[in-house]
Amino acid sequence: MWTKFAGHILRKRYYIIALLIVITLIMGFFASKVKMSYEMAQMLPETDSTFQEFESFKAQFGQEGSILVIGMKDERLFELDNFNKWYDLSNDLREVIGIDEVLSIPAIVDLTKDSKAKKFIPERVFKSRPESQEELDSLMNVVRNLPFYNGYLFNNEDEFTLMALTLDRKYLDSKDRKVLIDEMYSLIHQFEDETGLTVRSSGLPYIRSNNTTKISEEIKLFIVLAILVTATILLLFFRSFKAMFFSMLIVMIGVVWSVGFLGIFGFQISILTALIPPLIIVIGIPNCIFIINKYHQEYSYHGNQMKALNRVIYKIGNAIFLTNTTTGLGFATFIFTQSAILVEFGIIASLGILSVFILSITLMPILQSFLKPPSQRHIKHLERKWVFMVVNHLMTIVMKHRKVVYLVTALIIVVSIYGVTKIKVTGNIADDLPRHDPVFLDLKFFEGEVKGVLPLEVTIDTKKKGGVFKLSNLKKIDKLQDLLHEYPEFSKPLSVVEGLKFAKQAFYGGDPSKYTLFNSQEQSFIGPYFRGADETSKNLLKSYVDSTNQITRITAQVADVGTNRMEAIMTDLKPRVDSIFPPDKYKVSLTGTSIVWLKGTEYLVKNLFISLGIAILLIAIIMSILFSSVRMVFMSLVPNLLPLLTTAAIMGYFGISIKPSTILIFSIAFGISVDDTIHFLAKYRQELKAHSWNIKEAALLALKETGVSMIYTSIVLFFGFGVFAASEFGGTVALGMLVSLTLLVAMCSNLLLLPSLILSLDKWVTTKAFEKESLIELVDEEEDIDLEGLEIESQSDKNE
């Protein structure tokens, strides 16, 4: 197959180039339509009960997680001039398109009892800007006697205050978000400049907006760094600008195709799919290295350029296809997680790897065919002494010091097993942010003042129409609020009960001591006042009670405490909630972004381990088909599982938790590292046949020839993945550094442990099954290829 394929590529190179240009233009068109994702990543499948409860909540009460808070703790805010500027800021923000509501001290509403009309009249405490410090102090005294707002907009214990901005989801989840955020912060920065006060910001919209901006910037950074790193390494390896340029051209076309697939599938750029362009560059370059290296080797043998190019395609096409297949499988297994963000990543990454393989095996030989044959300077790298010294040293270790290899391996395994026991599984929404990042610092500031800013929702279905306002149920809701308040991670809960307490305080002339739930007697004479409520009050009520008054909600904010602590809280809370609302009479659901994140993290960790197992199984099946030997499959997996164990141990020793951003390491690294094993075993099999099944000679010759390419590609991959260390996200930094380390250990394992095992277990491994014909065969170095009918331009027609 590959013989015919090689002939077709070189004969029909003009048609192939034209076809690739058309495909690239089409992919470029789709790539131009790709947009950034502004929504929270969906980690749970749509069939998950937690996801369904959250969707049901949003359908009932609307989207949560759209409140951005700004605030400060500074007594200077309550100086007349500064407060009036805060008052103006509140009004100015309300006029910004995309901000639905602004809740702040200047906008606080009090209730006044109208005994004649038997209704409560909402009135703003600050009807206008205070004109004197005395007036401001007097009005602030009124505000501080409204317990409804204490713990939300201010703390009576200190000088903390906040302003809550409800953002329109239409703007929040689109590219218009940037315009909205920029206009909003222009006003906030103006306030800071005029007053000298520092305003803190937090909330899911703020965190997501900053993450989206950073992701957008990092895509460009990673692509530039990946290009610089790989281009520099290629120049050092081949000492040829053209070899470097054409390699970079091929992988950049691969990047265009990959982003084009995002557009075709209608996917958006998320924190994971943002990694694909630099990944394609880093993973695609080794293909080019293998092809160029083999091309130079072939040309140095016989000096026939076309014969060399033809034999390159024929001799290593199958091997490169299989190595790209195993790498692609490492990514494709993410599809089995059923998590939208990982499924998208798996689909696009695997298609991207397939694309860069097709481009490498077709375009690189074609481009080389238009150039002059490589000069002596270009093929001098084949005689690079330091590489051969390293390989020769490895051969000496394999021949004479295998016991040392096994001893070191055993020691690594023992130390690694202990390290693995220290690994923790966790996940925080802001976990990947640097501890000095303003977003992280502001989040911790608000957690210190109002416990947290991440939404936690409790829905209560009384299973009876009108059941919410039954006094016994109201008392249960109040009791549940008191229970939630016991947990230091939760903010003060807000529900319809708090509104009723506020109304009772207003009924008794604003006496703060009356801020309690009414009894049955009080209900009879306060009740008529609710029936006269205005439209604003009714609309506010709809946010907390459904139209039938059967289902209500309690909303609170929770600190970003991580999945472990959150799981412990939920485990402790659930039976206590059931003791208040018996499950046979009520349906109580805990939901909100914080709960969805908790369950999503648990789901990802569980399913990503499953995907790693699937990757190992699929690659093992491929290896068994290739080499017709179950024992050889076992032999090939050992040196590739060892690096994963080592990396897991390092995570345990250095406190790097297993979380959605780091669990990717294992599947990616395994899919890539097994490539070296395939190259080595394929060459080993060829040498066995060429040297009358002399196992020792075949193993050493395989090590000698494949060792150079392994070292070259491992250097590219090590520094290529290292570019992710430039990220501002801790998970991306860990991904880059740990994958680089894993691949480095995998290289050593494949160059030392694998040949050592083959030599030590020669009779056990090299069975008759292994001697059978396999799907992967390399042509003997002296075998000629019929080039009849292959018409190529003469050298005089070629351009430099």
UniProtKB/TrEMBL annotation:
GO CC terms: plasma membrane
Annotated transmembrane regions: 12-31, 219-238, 245-265, 271-292, 312-336, 342-367, 404-421, 608-630, 637-656, 662-682, 703-727, 733-754
Key words, A-Z: Cell membrane, Membrane, Transmembrane, Transmembrane helix
Subcellular location: Cell membrane
Domain of life: Bacteria
Chain ranges of the SSD domain: 247-370
Name of the protein described by the UniProt record: MMPL family transporter
